[in-house]
Write a structure and sequence with these properties.
single chain; mainly alpha; four-stranded mixed β-sheet; 16 helices; 4% strand
Amino acid sequence: MTDIRFTFLFLAALAVTFTLRLFLSWRQMRHVAMHRAQVPAEFAHSIPLATHQHAADYTLAKTRLGIASGVLDAALILAFTLGGGLQFLWSQAARFDLGPIGTGMLFMVLVSAISALANLPLSLLSTFGIEARYGFNKITPRLFITDMLRGMLLSALLGLPLLALVLWLMQGAGALWWLWVWLAWAGFSLAMLWLYPTVIAPLFNRFQPLDDKVLEARVTGLLARTGFKSQGVYVMDGSRRTRHGNAYFTGFGAAKRIVFFDTLLSALSHEEIEAVLAHELGHFKKKHVAKRMLTTFALALGILFVLALLLASPWFYQGLGVTEQTHAMALVLFFMVLPLFTFPLTPLSSLLSRRHEYEADAFAARESGRQPLISALVKLYRDNAATLTPDPLHSAFYDSHPPAALRIAHLKGLPA
């Protein structure tokens, strides 16, 4: 392939992705606005009209912000590639004469820093604009800055050594460098699964053992019935940052933890919390977590193999507006443009995720009853201002969870 042909291919992928994102956003906004005036019949007895309209307006505001984010993403990609941004940043990093690995690391840090700064206004608008306007944000400017600085420091402490290892392997591991890099990344990912619940997450939130003895007894009984072992059940102070409620599992092996947001515990009854927990347990019992992990590892191996094929191809660099044919440049270019070519495949991962949600719902219905889960879901849709009327195409493309109406109908159709 020639560099000119690849330039046109890149621009075509960018145009298709950008247009598709705009089209889906337009459909979502139109569909939500059209159904704003009336609560769907199946939710009319549990969701007030004012709450439904609040959720619709919240969805519209987030979708508009998503459009702005899409425009910014496209502009950044063009500025970095054909606009000469990456070439300029490489020339600045090379002035310090840090050697191939040091120069590559500095170059990638500069790219990341500029990207983060460019996205900061939208992050501020989301947190202190939309989330605050619709009653969800509770984070203070001071805590926002503290979180950002902690995140940057953590990224440097964990990410820079990994990046140095990757560049070192690319430089000295021979033709199979991509396999060694994959092994290093896989090992790092598994280590993070172990470190996150015990070391990383406590840097940002407080985790306390569940002290509600009645609820603890229900949880213990559910864990015993399902044969699930964990390190403990914890309550996280999610209310420091948001009014959204959530629950999740984290870690693996002996480090597995069950975590409830304090906001979720205050919103649901004990039997509803048990049902939500049963749903999360369903993901483990159905091996969804392991399947997703294996899929991610397999895709990463394939992606690194493709990068290895492109590494020595001048048209790949020149077609994207750069002349420096280095390992660091290849990494940045590849992972910058890869989403443009894979974006049309997004519905496949969304479909798989929704199937897993249905399976987890069915598991929860068997273990804790379908009605408590239905009741919990309705409350979560209401309290999190999740739209009850998403556009079907937008939902099929993006949503990892089934739309509310379909999910509730599926639960009602399960055996009592």
